[in-house]
Amino acid sequence: MSEEPRYRVVLESFDAGRELELVVLLSKLSGKPFDQIRPHLGNLPWKLASSMPESKARKLASQLEKEGAVVRLEQVEGQSGGSGAAGRQPPAAGGGGFRPPAPLGLGRRLRWALRIAFGTKLTQIGLILITGLASLIGSLVTGLLTGGAMLSVMPAMGEGGTPPDPAAMLQAMTSPGFLAAIAIQLVVMMLIWGLYQAALLRLAPEYFRQGGRPPFGRLLRGAFARVPDLLSTAAIVFLPLAALPLLALMFVDPDAPERTALAVGGGFLVSMVLTFALFLVMPVAANEPVGPVRALVRGWRLASGYRWRFLGHVIVLLLLMLGVMMLATLGVGAVASLAAQVDLVLAAIVGPLAYFAEVLLLLFMATAFPVLATLFYLEARARHEGACFDWREVPADDWPTCDVGDEPPGRGIRAWGELLLVNGAILGLIYLATPLVEQRLGELAVQFQALMPDQPASSKAGQGRHEQSTVVPGLDVEQGSGTGARTLTLPTGPRFGDGTLSIRRDLFFSDEKDPRLWVRLRADGLFPGMKPGAIPGKAVQVRIREARARNGRNLYNAASQFERNTFFHELQWMHDGKSLTALRTVHLLPGVKQADDIVLIKGELVMEGSDIGRMTVPFALRDDQPVRFELEAGRIRPAGDRPPGSGQMSEAKTRSAPLPKDPNEAAYALYQQGRYRESIRMLDRIIADDPKNSWAWYTRAWAYWKLGDRDKAYADVAMACDLGYEEACSLKRQ
Fold first, then answer.
1. How far apart are CA 434 and CA 92, in angstroms?
2. What are the beta bridge partners of residue 503?
3. Domain boundary at 201, 236, 259, which?
């Protein structure tokens, strides 16, 4: 397929009476200031373009001729393709082969990086002002588009008095308007960050092209054209690298500290190595319209031979920056001290100004890092690809220069489409991976908790990878029967003391869409020596089953997002000066307007501790009558069940509880009542009849443990594990 012929555009002469109009046109076409155009008009002929397609060349000549210029077009033989493409080959010198320029060296690279960073101070300040203004405008527009959804969270924090109602806060924070506001704000900040980084990564070539501080408008336009490619490249490169340490969590094992250290350290090391190995990817994306995938490939290839040198340069620059920061801090302190000795008012003015100057100094020093990366990128192009540049100044005298034509524009709508596609795919992967990460973090929390030295031996022995409960059906009893339903579980959480726990109804909040009321709990002596903030939320949880109206209708809104989320079943304790109190918000069906509509609230208290295991106690609140429970020696019962004058629960009453007919349930009931020897005798018969009953072996192990017979407990745990009981295997590994 034949390509369009290419032409040089040469300015031969011009009408002196129309010089000003010609200068204006040339400045507009080239993006260069007037003072850089006029010197060329005194040294004609002037080659305006070395290679342009015929259509563009004739269009340019027509524009110039309208302003009184005389233009000559010369066809270029043996050249095709777009002007200004990356990797343009320089003309051979004297007919010989291409000789790459010498490396710049450590000293020259750092000098150029600092020179450009400090030579573009006004440009950087302009970038900060522009991006800051864009952030402010973006926040205002976001607020208008979402109806002030972000501001609506503030009133929700104070709703319901003190403490704030967490359900009301979450309802405001999960509203569609608030989520839309957060999403829009994140997009705006991402675009602003991309514009700022693209401008910094383009500072060096623009500085060399102009021979000094580049025009702000040209720099900003070029940076904006590269924003979508830069953001897409950053997402492809750095988000997976940031995920490597999270992937290392899959190999963490508290029982194997060597493997854990290797996994975590290895993930971090691989992430850092790949970051430095791909250090030229971002400069490529900021300076070439090649797309994220090609930027990744080009950045990897261009970095060949420069990676270790770049690391060394970064270390030297970091040390230099640290030294400057220390000297600047000492200088600011000295200036403030001298000003304070002269006049306090003067010190109040000079001190902040000196601190502001120090911040600007550090900002200019930090700009040297992206400039340094771009210098390596330009040097790699000159040495690896033989690229030449149309600059007024070059980093070294042996760098080739040539006319490369106009810089190619950005990729337009295609780049923005790729940005949406790439980031959408990454967000989807994060969404899919989040449950796995949360599950693994939960497993690790249980494992590490088992290794905490302040827990008793029984607590450590009873913790495994997965916390599971062995629940025997039919043991739940109604309030007032003298005992609550208790399940054998892996003990975790705080150690409970002997005390009382009361629960009663509290304030009612009338809300047309989400009426709710508070259930208030009060604990005396349950958490000895613990501050409210140190009590885990899972120590006491409140589960609501129903909220009955006078007409028998259940008004409890079990479908509410707050009731479905078990996080809101957990209690956050406060100190009211005498006792510990906590609140549980109960969400009701829309339309409930009066607190008197609710006559009965039923639910369960779930208590979890290192000494009591996991205990579930049903309760029923009738009208405004509170319910009180007593916890003593690891057992809980409604207050008033203890015989008058008795210091402990009556043994006869405890033993009088009827046992279930099923042998397994009967053995477990005996274990619950603390009758461990009787439970063991019944479990012996169960095992004799069915030696493969792994649950019986496991439960007998717990009974032996309670009696202090560790050897028999370990033996039964091993047998239960051999029979496939998962909890027993977890105990065995511990």
1. 57
2. 521, 627
3. 201
Q: Buried (b) or exposed (e) across 427-465, using 16+ Cβ within 10 A?
A: eeeeeeeeeeeeeeeebbebbebbeeeebeebbbbbbbb
The C-alpha atoms of residue 40 and residue 25 are separated, in whole angstroms, by 14
Q: Are residues 569 and 503 in the same domain?
A: yes
Structure tokens at 561: 């997002």
Give yes or no: residues 479 and 621 share one domain: yes
Contact 627, 605 (CB under 8 A): no
Pairing of strands 580-587, 627-632: unpaired
DSSP 386-404: ---B--SS-SSTTS-B---
Q: How far is CA 337 from the centre of its chain?
A: 41
Q: pLDDT at residue 418 above 70? A: yes
On whether residue 166 sits in a domain, the answer given is yes
Q: Tell me, yes or no, whether 476 and 608 share the same domain.
A: yes
Indicate whether 53 belongs to any domain: yes
**Which of 39, 67, 84 represents a domain boundary (last residue)?**
84
3 state DSSP class of 119: helix
CATH number of residue 680's parent domain: 1.25.40.10
Q: What is the layout of strands, in order, in the sheet containing 540-549? A: 469-470, 485-489, 613-622, 598-609, 540-549
Residue 70 lies in a domain: yes
Q: Are residues 565 and 611 in the same domain?
A: yes
**Among the listed residues 441, 443, 422, the one whose alpha carbon sits nearest the alpha carbon of residue 433:** 441
pLDDT of residue 116: 92
Per the prediction, the chain carries an average pLDDT of 75
| Residues 52 and 180 reside in one and the same domain | no
- Structure tokens of 74? 């010369």
Per the structure, the count of domains in the chain is 4
Burial-class residue 194 by CB neighbours within 10 Å (0-12, 13-18, 19+): buried
Provide the 10 A C-beta neighbour count for residue 23.
Answer: 18
Summarised one tens digit per residue, pLDDT across range 361-409 is 888 888 899 999 999 999 888 888 777 888 888 888 888 777 666 666 6
- Which tokens go with 319? 């040390």
Same domain as 56, residue 160: no
**Mean of the pLDDT values across residues 166-179?**
62
Is pLDDT above 50 for 670? yes
According to the model, what pLDDT value does residue 382 have? 85
Domain holding 598, by residue range, is 466-637
What 650-655 contacts at long range (C-beta under 8 Å, 24+ apart), as own/partner pairs, is 653/482, 654/482
281 belongs to a structural domain: no
Q: Which two tokens stand for residue 131?
A: 């991006």
- Cα separation, 605 vs 665, in Å, equals 22
Sheet-wide strand order for 46-53: 46-53, 6-14, 69-76
- In order of 47, 197, 432, the CA distances from 202 in angstroms are 26, 9, 37
CB-CB contact of 470 with 727 (8 Å): yes
Roughly what angle, to the nearest 10 degrees, separates helices 344-380 and 121-145?
A: 100
Residue type for 108, please? R
Contact indicator for 167, 156 with CB cutoff of 8 Å: no
Amino acid found at 171: Q
pLDDT tens column, 45-87: 888 877 778 778 888 888 888 888 888 888 876 443 333 333 4
C-beta atoms surrounding 563 within 10 Å: 20
Burial (CB count within 10 angstroms: exposed 0-12, middle 13-18, buried 19+), residue 68: middle
3-state SS class at 451: coil
Whether residues 568 and 489 fall in one domain: yes
DSSP conformational letter for 382: I
Question: Coil, strand, or helix at residue 478?
Answer: coil
Residue 156: in which H helix or E strand, if any? helix 153-158
Same domain, residue pair 560 and 516 = yes
- pLDDT band of residue 112 (cuts 50, 70, 90) is very high
Q: In the predicted model, is pLDDT for residue 701 greater than 50?
A: yes
Q: Where are the alpha helices (DSSP H) in 343-471?
A: 344-380, 413-450, 457-461
